[in-house]
Amino acid sequence: MADQLASIILLADSLNSENLTEKIAKHLNKYPIGLIYLDIKRFGEMEKKHGQIACRKLLQVWKQLIIEAEMAGSFGLLTHRMFGDDVLLFVRTEQGDANWVKTVLLRLAHEIRTIFGKQLNESMVLSGDSIELYTGTAVLDPSTGRTAENLLYDAIKEAIHEARSKTDAEFRRLQMEFRDILAWHKITAHYQPIVSLSTGSIYGYEALARDPQESYFATPNRLWEFAEKENQLYALEKVTRQRAIEGFLSSDSNWKLFINLNANVIHDPQFTPGQTLAFLEKMNLTPQNVVFEITERQSIDDYASFTKALDHYRKQGYRIAIDDAGAGYSSLQAIAELRPDYIKIDRSIIHHIDRDKIKEILLETLVVFAQKINCQIIAEGIETFEELEIVRRLGVHFGQGYLLGRPHPELQPVSDAVIEWMQRHSSTV
């Protein structure tokens, strides 16, 4: 990678009006020049997940941030070069030897990584993914007497090698942390209520896996993505499912426990159906209490195999929900192939539905469709009484969202304010 990038730079600069090597040489007088290498972590995986168009927009934002920083003179930037998601920042110095500059660069690289990482995430180009940066540093030291071309070439290799070495060490640390989570079941279940919109009573709870907040894996997406890379999807799912069932201390035998089922788990070599029943019996629950949610954001490549796995669950009495319906393009196929008992409407449709007639019509159509296939609708992400009013009026069966109840380690009731509101508006349903 280092040799390849260096060769590309030298080739590209041969076509530029101002050669990078010549520009660097002009400033390599008395003091060294610092080099900071930046790279977006897991960019290739993001491109596969979100598509080339979304990632192209991310790179445009990334490039604009660098250009603006250079024009403003931030961080002492002299110039930069960008190749895809890889960026080389050249920093001018006005004092010190190579060792001093290296120390300053390390601090500066941390500051730049923090600031640019925050700005990239605030751009919201890739929804649901946290963007992080690799960094590496090197010093072009004129006191060695070497040519600017040689200094540039070696500095690029050194900065990239430093970044990659940090990456390898970080990955090993994450592997150990992940294995520790699995071995010691360091996952807690939080429960968010699912509420009947006709009565205001609890229908069930969705169990959400949570890791310690100080952990890299505190964001659930990271936990599941890492498990998939390590071929540990089923091992993680067993732990999270056990935690969800153990904490579901229901006071009503009719309440449903909604548990997320990763669509890719059937490809995990450890996958063996039939492990959940023992957990349920231990807690005096039955499969009739459990609804497995298949998220629309996880693509299903082999519907035949996945449907076969779901049939095993259905025969035992479990019910099936399609989660995040409306968040992407595969919802209709998933509904047609899997024939769910519930369709959970993604928050993107519910958000500000009281202000958007198109969203209202879309939800109304889904409600009619659900009635025709004998399926029930759950509206996710209800956060305001105005949104609640619309989804109730359209005949949505159940609701979920911060207005009705936030995720909590214990099963929480619906707030008195919501119940009172529903009682006042009962005649409108």
UniProtKB/TrEMBL annotation:
Q: Where is the EAL domain?
A: 171-421
Q: Which Gene3D superfamilies match?
A: 3.30.70.270, EAL domain
**Cited PROSITE patterns:** EAL, GGDEF
Locate the GGDEF domain: which residues?
A: 31-176
Q: Which InterPro entries match?
A: Cyclic-di-GMP_PDE-like, EAL_dom, EAL_sf, GGDEF_dom, Rev_trsase/Diguanyl_cyclase
State the name under which the record lists this protein: EAL domain-containing protein
